[in-house]
Amino acid sequence: MRLDIEQTEFAAAVRAFAQDQIKPVIGDFYERGEFPADLVRELGKLGVLGVTLPEEYGGAGAGLFMLGLALEEIARVDASVAVTVEASVTLGAEGIARYGSPEQQAKWLPRLAAGEGLVAFALTEPSGGTDAGRTDTKARLENGEWVIDGAKCFITNAGTVMTDLIIATAQTGPGEVSCIAVEPGTPGLEIGPEYSKVGWRASDTRPVYFDGCRVPESNLVGQRGRGFVQFLELLDSGRVALAALATGSAQGCLDESLVHAKEREAFGRPIAENQSIAFMLADMRLRAHTSRLAWQDAALKADAGEPFGTDAALAKLHASQAAVENARDATQIFGGYGFMNETPVARAWRDCKVLEIGEGTNEVQRMLIARSLGV
Ligand SMILES: Cc1cc2nc3c(=O)[nH]c(=O)nc-3n(C[C@H](O)[C@H](O)[C@H](O)COP(=O)(O)OP(=O)(O)OC[C@H]3O[C@@H](n4cnc5c(N)ncnc54)[C@H](O)[C@@H]3O)c2cc1C
């Protein structure tokens, strides 16, 4: 798809930051399992975290397409930082921008748009994430406050030094799910320790517990009982963003593999001169290309206000599979080095699997696509 000048310049600025600032240092953060707060803050200064948020609060007021361009460039180098941005913007800050009250927007959006704060969106529970309508966490109104009890698991951005807000889904009545914002430090909110993850090791993922956690009634985000609908809408955008992220991973695997295959020699010639390797590179290019077309098509429809739920599912399903396959081929092209954590494609190999799980597993995407076919 042809980019206009503004899109080209924005993508180029994010690419330069990713290549010059993230790429040289992210491997060490990854090995330590450490959240790279300064890098995320710098992305905030570049405007990445505020790109979709309203201009009146300091955002750029641009759409999902612009965010996708940034996520693709970041993930081309590292998926941990990309998912930090993706989860905070599409599932968190966008929730406040779309459904929050004017008071909530004025209170929280300026810092989020400036990239000084992050949001965690807490939907998944220990008893299951796919069956998301079944929310065991409960919230009851008592003297003008919501009292929340329950537990969430696998929550991205829940415990970073930058986290301003956790937006949790909770049952606020029989068959009624609502979204409630909770600020870190609220009594009764406990943020668990960072999980030991296979991949995305420089992103922050934790369990969250609510034990008689009290927040003002005004912390309800959106209408009472509309939480399920709200998060389904946010997840559609999230899937497009995750597809852009997956495309970046797929492209990054190709970038690295191409350089390596041209340099690495076996039997007196570069391994790229073997047709089996060259064809692998061609397939990787194809997967990155079709993934890009898929997420960009879905994003353009979203930004035009057209229905895009099925396109989001198609993009997420295709791009996540492409990323997994490119990571597998890239590690093969790198041989033994592909199994060493110091090699970026080894990180990609560990990172990409979760793309088939998060924000609706690929089984869920297939269900949505099948449903759109009337089956
Ligand atoms: C690193 C990481 C970060 C995450 N970040 C967040 C976050 O920020 N916020 C958040 O709320 N969640 C987050 N999640 C959770 C994620 O969204 C869930 O793991 C995912 O939705 C799947 O839920 P589950 O793990 O409970 O699997 P389950 O729901 O137990 O599903 C297990 C398997 O069964 C399959 N399955 C279930 N039902 C069906 C069916 N009807 N037909 C066919 N197959 C089916 C699923 O596709 C899956 O393969 C994160 C997860 C990870 C790993």
Strand content: 15-25%
Number of domains in the coordinates? 3
Radius of gyration: 21 Å
Average pLDDT: 97
Which structural class should the secondary elements be placed in? alpha+beta
Task: State the helical fraction.
Answer: 40-55%
**Assembly form of the protein:** single chain
- Number of helical segments with 4 or more residues: 10
Bound ligand species: flavin-adenine dinucleotide
CATH class of the largest domain: Mainly Alpha
Strand order of the largest sheet: 1-4-5-8
CATH architectural name of the largest domain: Up-down Bundle
Largest sheet: 4 strands, mixed
- One letter per element, helices H and strands E, the order comes to HHHHHEEEEEEEEHEEHHHH
Cofactor: FAD
GO molecular function, one term: oxidoreductase activity
InterPro entries: Acyl-CoA_DH_CS, Acyl-CoA_Oxase/DH_mid-dom, Acyl-CoA_Oxase/DH_mid-dom_sf, AcylCo_DH-like_C, AcylCo_DH/oxidase_C, AcylCoA_DH/ox_N, AcylCoA_DH/ox_N_sf, AcylCoA_DH/oxidase_NM_dom_sf
Protein name: Acyl-CoA dehydrogenase family protein
From the structure above, extract its key features.
about 375 residues; alpha+beta; Butyryl-Coa Dehydrogenase, subunit A, domain 1; Butyryl-CoA Dehydrogenase, subunit A, domain 2; Butyryl-CoA Dehydrogenase, subunit A, domain 3; 3 domains; four-stranded antiparallel sheet; 10 strands; about 50% helix; about 15% strand; globular; binds flavin-adenine dinucleotide
